[in-house]
Each structure stands twice: as structure tokens, then as C-alpha cells.
Structure prediction request, 289 residues.
Amino acid sequence: APAPAPLAWFDGALVPGDTLQAGLTTHAMHYGSGVFEGVRAYATDFGAAVFRLPEHLERMRRGADMFGLPFDPAQATDAVLATLRANGHRDAYIRPLAWFGEGGFGLDVEGHVPHMMVASTATHVHLNGARARLGVSRWRRNPADSLPPLKLCGGYVNSILAKREAKARGFDEALFTDREGRVVECTGANVFMVQGGALTAVAHPDALDGITRDTLLQLTGAQARAVSLEELLQADEVFACGTAAEVAPVAQIEDRHYGDNPVTRELQALYGRIVRGREPAWRHWLTAV
Ligand code: PMP
Prediction:
């Protein structure tokens, strides 16, 4: 028999995820008025645990506030944990999403029904050393003074365009730069570089304030500053980081090929131990399921 569809939390109840439907006037479907998170749980020696859940839900709250979407982090925490328990997931990717639903075709969110869901899918292997090839995007990142760098659904149209363009040119992922040639981020990950043994986190006002980036900054005390594309191309190592990507070495940016990534591999291993609860000093970043 086929495995049962995972359960999803929807407006307060756990239901089979594949039975959920959205109405045709769903505001978020027309205009992108939703906010989401990408969170991960890991199998640890003390059971499944979610990595930096409060920080993810706090970022989601900031996004929900932009639209006036009701959002209760305590309820969202319960929803995430209930979904993981119901599905028996240990290594899992978790997708909370809040959005404006049914209510007609007008742009005003007032009168549209707010909804929230949490879905989880089992993750079997993580990227584990997969080396990414980046194309420099022809599209600019949404500028922060037009669209704040939060996980607002509509903002990801920009990432979709960039990713499609990069893939059409044979790359795995796109790297955004601004008009002055400064590095912004990738479509779903932040960027770091290693030069002469020094670790630098790319800082840019249009980039998402990544939780993985923050994790690595706290672990390493790396400097965060603006970085030009020119500087990135001259670096010894470059890597992308994010909840889904974890720490992903970059093999190539356009026709610049990078060699071995020893510092990146070390950080990748450290990050892997921390998310699995094997570094007691950082256990407070894990919420037991
Ligand atoms: N930038 C963008 C645009 C993203 O979507 C993500 C993924 N959330 C990241 C960076 C990395 O953020 P985090 O480490 O919080 O997952």
C-alpha cells in the first residue's frame, strides 16, 4: 500500500495534507499576501529536535505584521511540534505558511479570511558536500525600500525569475548583485567567503537576515561587511548557507572555478554536529519535539 499522505496542520486541526484546497478568490494566490518559513528538524540522541524554531517564527511574525496578518508565535510553535509528532518525522523540512484567503478580487486584505498551515516532509539526506555552480543573475534582488527582505510569498517571484535564468544557462543557482557590483545573496541562501584564512559574511541591505548566517556568525565571530563581486571572485573559498542548503560549498561562479574548500568543509561538519545536538554548548538552539 502507498504510504499515507503526511498530515498538515490547517487552521487548528491536523488533516491529510493532500485534501487541502484553497478558494478561487484566495488573496495570496492573486497578490502574494502570505508569509512563510523554512525550518528543519533533526534526529538527535535525545529525539527529534527543531533548530532555532523561535528565531524562524519571530521572522515570520515580522512578515505577518507587514500585511496585518494575525500570527501567534506560541500557536505556531505548537502547530510545528504537533505536525512533526503526528507524522513521526525526525529529519524533516517544515513549512509554516500564513496567508490571506477567500474574500473577492479586491486588493485590500480586509474582508479576506486569514489562514495558517504547517506541512512537513521527511528529509533523508542533506546536501552533504554537494558543490554549487552559481550564475550571476541578470535580475536585481528586490530592493529593500520596495519590498522588505522577509519571507513574503510575493517576494519570491524575484527568486523564481533569477533561478530560472541561472538554470537555463546551465548553473544550479543564481547570485544576485546590485547596480554597484556588490554581492547581495542567492535566491534562497546567504553568501560567505574565505580569503587568506579570514571568514567574511556578505552583508547587504537587500538580503534576507538568514538564521544560518547568524548561526555561523555566532560560531566563528566572522566579520560581516559589504563585498564586491570582484572580491568574491578573487576569494579562496565561497559558500552559500541557509536552512535547506545548510553550508554549501560553491564550485564555480560563472567561469571562475574554485578549488578545494577546506574551511567550508570544516564549517559544514561543525554545523552538522550542532543541528544534531552533538555540541552541548549550542543545545539551546534546539527545541525538542
Ligand atoms: N536568503 C533567502 C532569499 C532565503 O529564502 C533564505 C532561506 N530562508 C536564506 C537567505 C537563508 O535564510 P535561513 O538561513 O534563515 O534559512
In short: The chain has a mean pLDDT of 95. The two ends are 28 Å apart (CA to CA). Helices lie at 27-31, 53-67, 73-87, 156-168, 211-220, 229-234, 262-275.
